[in-house]
Amino acid sequence: MRIATWNVNSITARTPRLLAWLESTGTDVLCLQEAKTTEAQFPVAELRELGYESAVHATGRWNGVAVISRVGLEDVVKGLPGDPGYEDVQEPRAVAATCGPVRVWSVYVPNGREVGHAHYAYKLRWFEALRAAVADDAAGGRPFAVLGDYNVAPADEDVWDISVFDGATHVTPAERAALADLRATGLGDVVPRPLKYDHPYTYWDYRQLSFPKNKGMRIDLVYGNEPFTKAVTDAYVDREERKGKGASDHAPVVVDLDV
DNA sequence: ATGCCCCACGCTGTGGGA
């Protein structure tokens, strides 16, 4: 089984590339983030023509997540139980589904904006809710993973130049502690291999030639429990999909499983 | 070549991204 996560930065802008990518890679399950549309406008029909079912949690201009599967789609949960919300709004940042033998969450962790900002506190509270929501599945015997845009670089090596991030979000001890607390439920980091260069970055800013210069970050992560990680036969960042006109600023992370 | 920001909303800018 081939399972992937990809922040598409608007499903509307990315549908042609998404459909072509699903076909060319033979991906069975995709956890998608930043749909940036409503559930009604999500391209469910186009995906169904390719043989995929869609579980979509999206409400409009911002955020929006989905699980797309051609190997079954059961027990869908939209939203994080205990979601703290931001300014009294529970944003669409998490959706879960069981796809054949595997259960997954597709997550889009809040950005945080600046250390000390209310959005940063929200980010940390959101991580705590995520930890609580996945603990039972993480400890269970079924292959389970939380895939998505975590908006945290797990280690200094996961950004191109740590000195640039002095005082910034995405690299703070508190954010990394939140990742560690999440892993402590029984999840391991499935680190993909890069297709080029030394480090498996998954995001490159659109500006300042970041991609050609490989000024990237590894912030799209796959955290799996032991039944999941034991089944992994390969994992890579599909940087080819970051190239050219009409690319997302994130590349897909692809994981092959023997399940 | 990988190439100098892009998305939605909705309008001549604004907010958000990281």
Give an overview in words.
It is globular, with a radius of gyration of 17 Å. 23% of the residues lie in helices and 26% in strands. The strands form three sheets. A six-stranded mixed sheet has the order 3-4-2-1-14-13. It has one domain (2-254): 4-Layer Sandwich (Deoxyribonuclease I, Chain A), CATH 3.60.10. It has 259 residues and is an alpha+beta fold. It binds one DNA strand of 18 nucleotides through strand 10. Its cofactor is Mg(2+); Mn(2+).
- Name the CATH architecture: 4-Layer Sandwich
Fraction of residues in β-strands: 25-35%
Mean pLDDT: 96
Distance between the termini: 7 Å
- Count of distinct strands: 14
Going across the major beta sheet, what is the strand order? 3-4-2-1-14-13
Low-confidence stretches: none
What is the top-level CATH class? Alpha Beta
By CATH, the topology is Deoxyribonuclease I, Chain A
Please summarize the sheet with the most strands.
6 strands, mixed
Described by the principal axes of the CA atoms, the overall outline is: globular
Radius of gyration: 17 Å
Helix content: 10-25%
Put the structure in a nutshell.
The protein is an alpha+beta fold. The chain is built from five helices and 14 strands.
